[in-house]
Amino acid sequence: MSDSIGEILKGIWCYFDKALPVVPLYKKEHQQYHDVVLENVSPSTIYGAEHLLRLFVKLPELLAYVNIEEETLIRLQQKLIYFLKFLRKNHNTFFLSAYDGSKVSHGKAQGKDD
């Protein structure tokens, strides 16, 4: 595994795009996903940090199916912890003040205050 943060973030981004329709959507968001995400649109350009955290909750369960060495898994977990700390520290930048999963506009899921 590369120590490059960029590579790790790229992997998270790719995993998020692939897993979003299956894992971190609530029932009421599935129709919205099908209405908004078109064939050539990356889900990560529409859904934000709220959905990414939902994926992180499921990540340990999903990583159980990945064949990687113990040492690599530990290093990956450490990098993910750093990333989560970064999100917490910068929550005002990445999270909406209020989230309403039924609204999407301007290419991002919008909160009630928008």
UniProtKB/TrEMBL annotation:
Q: Which PROSITE patterns does this entry report, sorted A to Z?
A: MRG (PS51640)
Q: Where is the MRG domain?
A: 6-99
**Gene Ontology BP, a term:** regulation of DNA-templated transcription
- Chief location of this protein within or outside the cell: nucleus
Which Pfam family would be a valid example here? MRG
**Where are the coiled-coil regions?**
none
Q: Which UniProt key words apply to this protein?
A: Chromatin regulator, Nucleus, Transcription, Transcription regulation
Compartment list: Nucleus
The family database entries (InterPro entries) matched by this protein are listed as:
MRG (IPR008676), MRG_C_sf (IPR038217), MRG_dom (IPR026541)
What top-level branch of life does the organism fall under?
Eukaryota
GO cellular component terms given for this protein? histone acetyltransferase complex; nucleus
Under the heading PANTHER family, the entry gives: MORTALITY FACTOR 4-LIKE PROTEIN (PTHR10880), MSL COMPLEX SUBUNIT 3 (PTHR10880:SF15)
- The protein here is known as MRG domain-containing protein
